[in-house]
Structure formats: structure tokens, C-alpha cells
């Protein structure tokens, strides 16, 4: 690949980038993944299931490594392993609801073992060492059109399910006891959400690498929830932030010698820190003495 | 409310008219959980519009009684009818406020949205703009006005005080115009002025909306002035009646089989001395899975 030269004419730069099929696929795949991560991540942040999300993503690493070793293709490995892990977590006693605090040691142990198993599969495959960094920290090279199609289909299915169960899922996420009393099947919704989270982690992992999925799964939704407390607009802001993060990161990574995962995470983290700083400043301003309103 | 009208109402409800069907009828009910007897031989009736407190020492199964009325905890003996149906069949006509501490401070959801979820959060699909959506928004505004939460309903609920959160949750429980409110220690973790204010609010709603209220309480005093009846729960059964008849040394001593003294302070507060504290079962308290 010849070193591309950056000009300040951004449109020309984009046109230059998109003359390369692998960059077009990178933008397509990145945008698809960003939209899904922004929505599922929004629920994950609300449900405080970041730890489960990270576990599912890390489990994708041995899955992909094993699939490559067996000649099955990384995509299948990501999805198969993440979905299997989600079903296991969902089957743990009280797993989907409030068990994460007690089970954190178990999940931590599984994370460590998943990484170790992934390293084993890479060692077994031999000559795959260049791919290790891509599996762990992401890459925008070599995304095939077929992979983009797979990502788009999975995203469409998951988002259709979210449209169907999103409202009771929100209820169950905020207030499981009251939701259950209203006839919301909180346990089944929790399991369904874990499966959707696994599909999302498997998708995001293919772009950001197994260890950096939070660049898209946590940072944009957390930033959006700081910006607005209205559920609908907050989800929309999350999608815009995630997509913008991917676009800017791909743009910068194309011209820079540093990896995509670094740029993705830096941009998303920068936006989060800036938003949190502004929110803290506003909160500090608001806490100054004010007249107390009349109370009933 | 004057003491005279208070006494009259107590007398009225003490003699429940026979033609008025009970909202809740508990007949010789018993619950065993994890091999431990919670309570048995419990009989309770609650009529429309009544304000009833469920009292008793820690661990006696007050929350379990509410959950078994909702069908969240199965009975091992006896029967419960809720609005003439088996438990769990008429929950859409019940507003339930489980025991809790508070929402997590970092929860970025408005009080308004929490109330809205009580109205249509159980429905599948996306809430599309239209007549139903406008009606829901209007109902939420009405509920916010009912509990005087206009000043803070649009702020993140995690940042509100315990009393403000409790008012919003009461509004949520009222969203579907229930005929019965089941409140599990709603005054718990509130300071004294807020306890008084929320108790007055619940009583006002009970009268204005014609909603019956069954409220689990650790301390009867903040609600004593508003109550129609109290239910004192023990492992071997329950005693119910007007507070002056039930909260007495003789009744409670008979219920618990151990000497109990009820003292009355000069300002009309009741102090129960010597009631047995059951062995702590903390796993069951504060919203454990039924």
C-alpha cells in the first residue's frame, strides 16, 4: 500500500479513500457496527451489565482464533462463541437480574481463561502472529463484502427485536420488581438481552478487536446519557456519536501509522471526558444556594 | 381531619357492609418458603377505599403477604382472592410499590419516564406518536400534579431525594388507575417531615381517588391518624381491626404468645415494647426475587 497523503480538502480525501474497496467496506462495516453498539450499549449501560458485555467480547477472541485455526473463518468463531457464552451466563442462577456482583469472580476467571485459550489457538495455528493484534485490538484491513453483509443482516435482526421488546426491556432494566408485578417477563427479557449483547459484542469485536469493544459499546451510550436524560433522544445521540467516532477514527487511521483501535478509543474517550467535564461544571454551578421551592 | 370524623370512619369500616365485595380476601392462608414457615392461618379482608396498615416485627412476612396477594409468592395453604380472581389475574388493577432503598444516583432517567413506564411499560413495540401517546402524556402530567412533583419530574431520578423518589413511585403505582395500592414500607428511609408528608399524600389519594391502600409499615405512628384498620401479622395468624382495638397489650400478647406492652405517649403516639424480633432473614428483604 502506498502511503496516502492527507490534504485539507476533506471531500477529496474521502473520495480518495473510497476509491479503495477495502476502505469502502471498512466504512460500511464500521457504521453498521456503530449503530448496533450504540443501541445495545445504551441498554447495557442502563442495566449495569458492562462486565458481562466485556466478558462476551473477550470470549470472542478464542472463538475467532479457534475458528481460524480450524479453517472455519473468524466471523463464525466470533458469533458461535459469544452466543454460547451468553446462553451460559443467562443460565447461571439469577444471572440475568442481579447476580453480577456475586458472580464477578467467576466471570473474571472466565475472562482470563478465554484470553489464555485464545493464545493457545494462535500458537496451534502457527504463522498467525500478525493477526493476534488485529483480533485483540482491531483492524480495518481485509473486511470482505461478505462480512459486511453478515454484519448488516445480524444488525437488522437484533434491531428489529429491540424495536419489539425495547419498552418492556427498559422497564425491566430500571425497575425489575415493579416490571415483574406489571407482568413483564423480566427473566426472559434478561436472557434475550444477553443474547443480543453477545451478537453485538461479536460484531463490534470484528472492528475494534476483542479488548476494545467498549470504545463503541460503552463510551458513546454513556456520553449520550450524560447529554440528555430523555430515552429516545439519548439513544439517537448515542447512535450519532458512535457513527461519528467510527468515521473520524477510520479517517485518521487511514493517514496515521497508529492502529484503528487506538483512534476509536481515544476519540470516544475524549468525547466522554469532555462531556463529563461539562456536566460536572454544570452540576457545580447548579449546587450554589438557591431558594427552596414550596413543599407539599 | 378532625378527631371526630376520624372516629366515625373507624366505626363505619369496623362494621363492613355485607353487600360490599372485598377487594382482597385472604382465607386461612399460609406460606412456607425454603422449608421455613412464614405465616399460616391468616385471614384478611380489605374493602374498596380502605386505608389499611400491615404491621408486625421484622421477618414476620409482611412483604410476603403483599407478594402473595400479587401472586408473586405461591401459597402453601388456604386461598387468596384479589378482586374476585386468583392472585396474579387482576394485577393490572393493582399498583405495587415494592420495598427498596433508592434508585442508583447515576441512573440517568427522568421521573417522568419512570411514571410513564408504570402506565405502558409492559406493552411491546415502539410507542408511536398518536392518540394513545398523547393520552399517556396527559395522564403522566396529571399524575405529576397529583403528587406535587412538577418541580423535579424532569430531573434524573437518581439525583432526587428519597421523599421525591417515593412520590414519583407512588405516581407510577397510580398510573393505571388501580383500585388497590400495595405499598411496601414507603416511609422507610425517609426523614420525619417527609414521612409525615408522604403519609398525608397517600391518605389524600386514598380518599380522592377512591383507591384502597394496603401499606406495610415498620412504625405505625406516621400513618396512625389516617388508618381505617390495621392488620397485625404473626407467624400463627393475623389480627385485624381498628388501631385502638388491635394495638393493645392484650391483643398483641395473645398473638405472639409472649408478654407485650403497648404504651401511649402524651401526644398520642403508640410504642410497642417487647415484640419478638424474628431471626433476621436479610436475603428476603429489600426486593429479593420472590
UniProtKB/TrEMBL annotation, chain A:
The keyword Transmembrane belongs to this UniProt entry's keyword annotation: yes
Where exactly are the transmembrane stretches of this chain?
20-44, 51-69, 104-122, 151-171, 191-219, 231-254, 260-281
**Domain of life (superkingdom):** Bacteria
Membrane-topology annotation of the record: Multi-pass membrane protein
Question: What's the main place this protein lives?
Answer: membrane
InterPro entries given in the database record: ABC_BtuC-like (IPR037294), ABC_TroCD (IPR001626)
Q: Where in the cell is it found?
A: Cell membrane; Membrane
Pfam families attached to this UniProt entry? ABC-3 (PF00950)
KW Transmembrane (keyword) present = yes
Q: Which UniProt keywords apply?
A: Membrane, Transmembrane, Transmembrane helix, Transport
What Gene3D superfamilies does the entry give?
ABC transporter involved in vitamin B12 uptake, BtuC
Extract the SUPFAM superfamilies matched here: ABC transporter involved in vitamin B12 uptake, BtuC
Family of this protein: Belongs to the ABC-3 integral membrane protein family.
Q: What is this protein called?
A: Metal ABC transporter permease
Q: What is the lineage of its organism?
A: Bacteria, Bacillati, Actinomycetota, Actinomycetes, Micromonosporales
TrEMBL record, chain B:
Q: Which UniProt keywords apply?
A: ATP-binding, Nucleotide-binding, Transport
Q: Which residues form the ABC transporter domain?
A: 24-260
Which Pfam families does this UniProt record tie to the protein?
ABC_tran (PF00005)
Gene Ontology molecular function = ATP binding
This one is known as ATP-binding cassette domain-containing protein
The species is Planosporangium thailandense
Amino acid at each position: 500500500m502506498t502511503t496516502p497523503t492527507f490534504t485539507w480538502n476533506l471531500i477529496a480525501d474521502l473520495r480518495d479513500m473510497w476509491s479503495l474497496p477495502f476502505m469502502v467496506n471498512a466504512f460500511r462495516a464500521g457504521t453498521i457496527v456503530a449503530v448496533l453498539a450504540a443501541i445495545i450499549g445504551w441498554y447495557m449501560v442502563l442495566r449495569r451489565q458492562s462486565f458481562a458485555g466485556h466478558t462476551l467480547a473477550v470470549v470472542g477472541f478464542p472463538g475467532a482464533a479457534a475458528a481460524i485455526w480450524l479453517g472455519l473463518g473468524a466471523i463464525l468463531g466470533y458469533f458461535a462463541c459469544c452466543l454460547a457464552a451468553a446462553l451460559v451466563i443467562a443460565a447461571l442462577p439469577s444471572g440475568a437480574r442481579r447476580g453480577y456482583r456475586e458472580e464477578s469472580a467467576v466471570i473474571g476467571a472466565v475472562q482470563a481463561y478465554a484470553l489464555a485459550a485464545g493464545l493457545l489457538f494462535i500458537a496451534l495455528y502457527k504463522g498467525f502472529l500478525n493477526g493476534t493484534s488485529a483480533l485483540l485490538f482491531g483492524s480495518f484491513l481485509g473486511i470482505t463484502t461478505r462480512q459486511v453483509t453478515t454484519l448488516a443482516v445480524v444488525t437488522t435482526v437484533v434491531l428489529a427485536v429491540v424495536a419489539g421488546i425495547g419498552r418492556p426491556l427498559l422497564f425491566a432494566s430500571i425497575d425489575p420488581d415493579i416490571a415483574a408485578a406489571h407482568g413483564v417477563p423480566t427473566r426472559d427479557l434478561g436472557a434475550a438481552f444477553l443474547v443480543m449483547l453477545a451478537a453485538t459484542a461479536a460484531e463490534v469485536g470484528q472492528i475494534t478487536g476483542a479488548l476494545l469493544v467498549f470504545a463503541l459499546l460503552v463510551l458513546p451510550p454513556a456520553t449520550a446519557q450524560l447529554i440528555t436524560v430523555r430515552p429516545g433522544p439519548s439513544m439517537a445521540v448515542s447512535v450519532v456519536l458512535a457513527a461519528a467516532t467510527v468515521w473520524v477514527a477510520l479517517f485518521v487511521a487511514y493517514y496515521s501509522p497508529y492502529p484503528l483501535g487506538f483512534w476509536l478509543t481515544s476519540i470516544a474517550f475524549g468525547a466522554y471526558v469532555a462531556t463529563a467535564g461539562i456536566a460536572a461544571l454544570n452540576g457545580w454551578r447548579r449546587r450554589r444556594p438557591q431558594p427552596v421551592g414550596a413543599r407539599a | 381531619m378532625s378527631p371526630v370524623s376520624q372516629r366515625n370512619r373507624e366505626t363505619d369500616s369496623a362494621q363492613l357492609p355485607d353487600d360490599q365485595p372485598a377487594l382482597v380476601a385472604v382465607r386461612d392462608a399460609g406460606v412456607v418458603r425454603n422449608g421455613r414457615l412464614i405465616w399460616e392461618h391468616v385471614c384478611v379482608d380489605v374493602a374498596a377505599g380502605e386505608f389499611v396498615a400491615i404491621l408486625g416485627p421484622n421477618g414476620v412476612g409482611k412483604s410476603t403477604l403483599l407478594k402473595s396477594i400479587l401472586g408473586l409468592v405461591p401459597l402453601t395453604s388456604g386461598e387468596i382472592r384479589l378482586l374476585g380472581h386468583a392472585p396474579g389475574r387482576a394485577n393490572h388493577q393493582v399498583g405495587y410499590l415494592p420495598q427498596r432503598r433508592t434508585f442508583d444516583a447515576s441512573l440517568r432517567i427522568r421521573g417522568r419516564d419512570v411514571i410513564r413506564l408504570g402506565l405502558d411499560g409492559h406493552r411491546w413495540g415502539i410507542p408511536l406518536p398518536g392518540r394513545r401517546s398523547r393520552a399517556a402524556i396527559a395522564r403522566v402530567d396529571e399524575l405529576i400534579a397529583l403528587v406535587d412533583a412538577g418541580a423535579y419530574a424532569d430531573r434524573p431520578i437518581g439525583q432526587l431525594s428519597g421523599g421525591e423518589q417515593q412520590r414519583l413511585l407512588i405516581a407510577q403505582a397510580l398510573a393505571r388507575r388501580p383500585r388497590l395500592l400495595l405499598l411496601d414500607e414507603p416511609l422507610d428511609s425517609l426523614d420525619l417531615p417527609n414521612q409525615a408528608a408522604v403519609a398525608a399524600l397517600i391518605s389524600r389519594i386514598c380518599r380522592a381517588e377512591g383507591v384502597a391502600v394496603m401499606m406495610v409499615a415498620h412504625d405505625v405512628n406516621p400513618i396512625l391518624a389516617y388508618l381505617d384498620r390495621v392488620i397485625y401479622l404473626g407467624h400463627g395468624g393475623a389480627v385485624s381491626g381498628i388501631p385502638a382495638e388491635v394495638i393493645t397489650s392484650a391483643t398483641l400478647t395473645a398473638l405472639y404468645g409472649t408478654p407485650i406492652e403497648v404504651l401511649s405517649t402524651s401526644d398520642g403516639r403508640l410504642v410497642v415494647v417487647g415484640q419478638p424480633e424474628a431471626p433476621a432473614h436479610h436475603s428476603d428483604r429489600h426486593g429479593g426475587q420472590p
